[in-house]
Amino acid sequence: MKQGFRIFAVVLIIGLSIVSCKNEVKQNAGASSELEEKKPNIVYILTDQWRGSALGYAGNPDVKTPNLDAFAKEAINFTNAVSVLPVCTPHRASLLTGKFPTTTGMFLNDLYLPSEELCMAEIFKKAGYNTAYWGKWHLDGHGRSTFIPKERRQGFDYWKALECSHNYTKMPYYDNEDTNIKTWDEYSPFAIVKDANAYITEHANDEQPFLAFISIATPHYPHNSAPKKYKDLYPSESLTINANIPAKLEERCRKELQGYYAHATATDEAIGRVLKKLKELDLMDNTIVVFSSDHGEMMGAHGVKPFVKQLAWDEAIRVPFLVSYPSIGDNKGAVVNAPLTTPDVLPSLLGLTGIEIPEGVEGENLMELIQNPDPNADRVALVMNPAPFGANFKDEPYRAIRTKQYTYAITPNGPSMFYDNVADPLQQNNLLGKLEMEAMQKDLDAKLHEALQKIGDSIKPRAYYMDKWNYTFDEKKRAIDWWSHDKGEGVVQSPKQF
Hints:
Layout lengths: L1 H36 L3 E8 L17 H7 L3 E3 L2 E2 L5 H10 L3 H4 L15 H7 L3 E7 L21 E5 L9 E4 L6 E2 L4 H16 L6 E10 L8 H4 L15 H34 L6 E7 L20 H4 L3 E4 L10 E2 L3 E2 L3 H9 L13 H5 L9 E5 L12 E5 L3 E6 L2 E7 L17 H17 L7 H7 L30
């Protein structure tokens, strides 16, 4: 009997233990579920024409960017991030869709991104996010000062934005559903950030996470409009002129660099205010923060005058990309040398937030590389320009790839660029046809064509793409005519024609 009682007692204890464990598992699962209910916020800070070399943390000896230098020590630094097509509208369309410009047809400035495209804010909104947008949009294609109604905002609800303006001292914008145009009351980076900080403060404790997209148009030209306080930091005669800038452009580049760096330093201060606010509100531990730019600018390099981009040299394509995320821990300040291209951003953000990546997204989810940064990792990042326009109209179309070490590009007439960016960071020694580099050139060419094959693309003349999408340039400016919209005479051009 005693033995039977002992067996009963053991069974009872085991049973109670199992029940207790199950209850504990349920409670832990419930706690875990509650913790996972609110996904991380996202603050995406997009600047305009800020090239990847024009930052203190990137080794620039002149420019002062103390806030971003500090943030680089708290984030993952993608040193070889590139713009998929280095000009505004194509980059932004690719950023929001996760697709390449030849897939969407968004390869020129001032096109309208069709509402049928599934975009970043729509995806995050469906996952329960509040969405907000400030600043330059440049995806509406209905002229640069026209009111953009809610149905054309691609899922962004809170809205203080304008299609495009570079008047930084009196920048116009539209306030949500108010069709009357307004003007920011101070230097636009500071004004935009002040409103963004108010939004972040208001929504800091919401049950829903937020996607706050802060689009600051500086340090894009005009450079002379930078506040004097910041221009005074940069006497033009003291500025470093790179060896790939010819002597005939040196004086002009010094003048432009003074204002360019002044805008950069002022914008760095504005970004610092956002980062400070996130820390004050104790949000950094549940917020993904990204700092980047839509493209760089040539600034005289290789004899190309200031303001010009669209080309495959690093001055135009390489952009800053810093990303911090919850539980970054020991990865703070880590460096990733493997390149990232614009379509990779959306799927990577979706990966970090645990949201399913929609079918049709062409970029790669780099979540693993972000969470396990490896400076020795490498990959191929695709860059393109199917139809150079405006100031670049006489340039050849190209496709290019960037690896952590090399740049390789082709045009319809054959290979055009081959640089070892480690040995030759100013890209002054084109390695095309060098016997000792023949095997590497062949390998890069194969990788480039493999990348094109993945997205159903190939290198063809500009006319092919203009005809395919039924686009027409203004005869004099060789660009999409956006200025006629101000006179009520504009024609919207879009991959989905009206």
